Prior knowledge:
Chain A has about 625 residues and is α/β, with parallel strands linked by helices. Chain A contains 27 helices and 18 strands. Chain B has one domain (about 5-80): Non-ribosomal Peptide Synthetase Peptidyl Carrier Protein, Chain A, CATH 1.10.1200.10.
Amino acid sequence: MSHGEIIRSIRRWRELGQLAQHARELSQALGAVTDWQTRERIGYALRDVTCEALGDGFIESRLAIVGNCTLDGLEHLLRARLLEPQIVPNFYLAGFDQYVRELLDPASGLYAHRATLTLCVLDEHLVPEVVERPWQLDELARFLDEKLALLERLVASFSKHSTGTLALTLPLLSAETSASVIDYRSKAKLSALWRGFQRRLLELAETNGRVLVLDTELLLQSSGVALRDARLAFHGAMYLSQSLLDALAAELVSVVRALSGRAKKCLMLDLDDTFWGGILGEVGPAGLELGDTARGKAHRELQRIAQGLKEQGVLLAINSKNDLDNVRRVLDTHPDLTLRSGDFVAIEANWQPKSENTRRIAQQLNLGADSLVFLDDSDFERRLVAETVPGVSVPTLPSDATLYPSLLLQGGWFNVLSLTAEDRERTALYQREARRDELKASAGSFDEYLSALNIEIALVTPDDEHRLARLAQLGQRTNQFNLTGSRPQAGEIRQMLADERYRVLCIEGRDRFGDYGLVGGVIVEKRGAQQDDWWIRTFLLSCRVFERSIEQAVLRAVLDDAQRAGARSVHGEFLPTKKNARFEVFYPSQGFSRVELGGATQAYRHELGSLPALVPWINVVNARQEVAA
Amino acid sequence: MIEFESVRGCVADVLDFDPEAVGAGTPLPELPGWDSVNGLRVLNALESEFRVRLGLAAFSAAKTVGELHGLIDEGSAHAR
Lengths: 629, 80
């Protein structure tokens, strides 16, 4: 389809109310768009689109855009890019140059919007003195200091009045501003002053967990991206070009994906001519290209990137048409490989269709197919997987292998807001899982297996930064056992911890094979004047520890707690999402009865008369008991 | 020679309306969604689609879709 045809099809689907029927074509078409002009027009054509119009699978994300310059177009570019991973933005757009007022005023429209992500786009005009009189260097340091102090106040205000995340873009010094200074010493000084300002801005992200600073400078390295279109800069203060706003939108997709639980978790690699150069079955281990040649170096680089992803918590899997024994031998003995079989959580090397292998890998890792990115040099295999396993992201690889490494990274598929200790251990955690599977296979029955695991669960208050960060991250990652679809951010959790009406508990666990780490969370709100009507607002459990009745054991502990505290009842809620359907019966299965409240959220009540049975193979240690001990 | 229909089609794509609904004599302010922001979007789109530089003054002086077409045809003749 040509770009004009794509736009006209979308318009037709919209007019006929058929966007939902064509949702997959829409996603694919958006993925195929390569120029920002088309993207912007599609985003504009879909400016009023809602989740309902697009149907199942789409989720809404509340976003806000503020800044010191005109940002027309960013909204449409971002919408078109977000719709590809099925995220529908609900925007708040602040007026021109309103960022200071919006961020300082607790009653601003910005805060009323309750955005998950607030984007503050800044350019050099935020310090007008720098643009107007850059040659007066003596005064500039003071103006920059003042501006930084203001930005610090804005960030502090944001932390106080919003529970979301703030992304600041790094303002760049334009070539025009530098060129208006004619002596080279002063030019260098101006650059140094500006870089100092930028560095201190970047450091805001180190000291405040709620703030991200996006390095706009790097976006200028993409082809066809310019800082500014001079004519439009005079016209309505459009200081940043549409090409740069489009590159910024691409970066923001990764941020929004991470905040919406849609970051990718597993990189699934083909081997022949993708992971290594050459076809193993034809050239043998010694014939593989893994060094010397430009092509060999590119494959090596791809492996280094994969290893880096693995060390940062991304799971690696192999999906290849090869003999398993050959593959294992090469992975374990080839002198030029740095990744070994132990670095992969799943290896499917066989002669079955790659679509089936993909399903098996997703199932084995207990992940949705939409958590996978599949890299394969073969157009046939890519189409097969993309078309038969919906959700898998399958970037189109060019024929030139030297482009693979940058192509893998530029999608920002796996980006997260911040890493935690669990991330670095993730591959090991999944491998322990494989050993549990072996025990399961050898045990006489499933119950015997569970008893043999010696599971211990601890419910712990997240009163340290590590647990707090991990709990927030788990909210962003967890889609299946997330009973209310809730994704509390660190700031919200901190507020609830300080509020006696809330009880926030992390679920940590271990068994004979090792630590699970922090695998879940429960947030209870104690309602009523006596605080004796408990409501479970958030209940999360990592899919890594499913099938062990840990959720039952935790719920039993919460009910037990409520009973001891003299509560009248405990309410649980279930809000159906695309992925949590299998847990719809969870509360009813635990002795809760349905309460009709209306709305999409189903409410259930337990009167605490008789508690559900203990889970015999799990030993639960409560935070309070831990403190007492 | 650039056809009127292709200029109209480009404007229609950008402003999201049915191209058949407007003619060469339709005044620009009567186009759906026409305002200063959308005017710039149209300018951007026409320039990149037809590889011409229109100049803000000439663009602002155009009153109808037909006049826009004339500007682009002229600009592209110069470019050739």
